Amino acid sequence: PRPLHGSEAAALEAMGGLCRVIDPLGIPLGGVAPFAPAPPTVFIRLTHAAYRRGELHDRLNVEALHADECWPYMPHLTIAKMDSEEESQRVYQEARCRWTDCRCSRRVTIEELTFVRQVGPDRWVDIAPVPLGRRLAHTR
After folding, report:
1. How many other CB atoms are found less than 10 A from the CB of residue 19?
2. pLDDT digits (tens, 9 = 90+) for 22-80
């Protein structure tokens, strides 16, 4: 989340231009972990090639998209966000057990980002997909 420096259309255009020259990212998944104490969130760590996701973040944090962030950037896949630390710990324990037992692939490919607009507390709407390595699909 970030305030825009200029119009939404300019930010989307900048994002599309930057993403056009960035290849899709293959990222191995790590273990389940919690953010604590705030915000109470459970996530899956990105391992090894996660530095590429960090590089992507840094490349996009420019011009109309630039923001000084209140949290250090940590590449991850969010599983759930809860209202309390107690609930977060319960969900973390369950997710950790299920992830340990899961025999699915431990790798994801990020082929596109989604430009979103915040419409309320913890509420977002998708504005446009932004593909990596090719032209912007469409805008609203």
Report:
1. 23
2. 889 888 899 999 987 667 889 998 876 555 666 778 888 888 888 887 777 777 888 99
Contact in structure between 116 and 110 (CB atoms under 8 Å): no
| 8 A C-beta contact, residue 26 and residue 56 | no
CB count in 10 Å sphere of residue 97: 11
Tokens of 101: 């037992």
- Return the half-sphere exposure (C-beta side, CA atoms, 13 A cut-off) of residue 50: 13
Identity (one letter) of the amino acid at 108?
V
Cα separation, 128 vs 3, whole angstroms = 17
pTM assigned to the model: 0.73
